[in-house]
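Summary for the lay section of the report: proteins are chains of building blocks that fold into shapes. Here we show the chain for Simple sugar transport system substrate-binding protein and then a coded description of the shape we predicted for it.
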Amino acid sequence: MVRWQKKSAAVGAALVLVTALVACSSSGGKQEEEQSSGGSGGSVADTPRMKVAFITHAAPGDTFWDLVRRGAEAAAKKDNVELQYTGAPEGADQANLVQTAIDSKVDGIAVTLAKADAMQANVKKAADGGIPVVALNGGIEAWKQAGALGYFGQDERIAGQAAGDKLTQLGAKKAVCVIQEQGHVGLEARCQGVKDKFPNSEKIYITGTDMPGSTTTMTSKLQQDKSIDYVVTLGAPFALAAVQSVKDSGSSAKVGTFDTNKDLVGAIKDGRVQWAVDQQPYLQGYLAVDSLWLYKTNGNTIGGGQATLTGPAFIDKSNVASVEKFAAAGTR
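The coded shape description reads as follows.
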C-alpha cells in the first residue's frame, strides 16, 4: 500500500493544480445556469472553440458511463469545447472511432484503453500526427506506449488489492469475483488484485449485456458452492443483480462491488450491498476533457509523467450519507 500512498499524494497535488488553473483560466463572461446533472456552472472560457472526441468502450446499459459522460460534458461546457461522445465495446470498433476522429481533424482525443492491443496503433497515429490524446479509465499500463499525454483513473490491481484487504478485515471465508466482460484487462486486474490479498477467491464470467443471464449464472454458482460468503462484482448494476442472486439461491453471502450509481448508493444505505470501491468516474471524464483544454490553451500537462489516480476509495455505511446527495444529482 506504500505505492498507493505515494501516488495519492501526487494525485492530490495534481488536482490542486487543476483547480487553480481552472479558476485562473475561466473568463468573466455571461453566467450560465448550472447543469441539472451537477455540472460546473459558472462562466464559459473565452478561449477558441475546440472539438474533442471522447471515445469509450462502454457497453449498452452500463450506468457507470453516464457518470463519466456527465463529467466530460461539465468540463466541455466550462471550456467552450464541442464534445463528440461515442463508444463501442469491441476494441477494433473503438479503434475505428479513433480513426474517424483523426479524419475529422479534432483538436483532441480522450480515449479508454481497456483493449489496448487493438487501440494502440490508431491512438499513436493520432498523437504522432499532432492531435493531443489523453487516456482514462482503462489502460494504465499502456497509455505511455500509445503516446498519450496523461492518464486519469485508478490502478486496477491496487484497487483489487484494497478490496481483498477489505474482505480479510471483514472476516470473509470465500469470495467469488464476477467479471462481466471477457478480455477486459482492467477487470481481470481487479480480480487478480483481490486474489493477491484474499487467496480464497475465484473468478466467474458473466455477459454484462445480458442481465437476466448474468443473474442466473451467479445464482447457479451460489447454489453449487454454499461456502461462498462474499460476492464481489465489478460494476454497480451487477452488484444489484448479485443481491437478487443471493436471494434466489438461498445463500447468506454478502455483496461488495466496484463502482457506483444512484441505485447502488441506496443499496449501501439500506444494507443490501456492504461497500463499493469508488474510482470517481465523473472526475475521470471531467479531467480528461479539462486536461486537453489546458494543454491546448496553456501548454499544461498533469501528472508529471505518472498516472493521475482518481481512486480507489471505499463507500460504505460509515460515509454513504456524504455521497448520497451527489449520487442524487447524477455525479457519483
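Put simply, here is one thing we learned. The longest helix spans residues 2-25.
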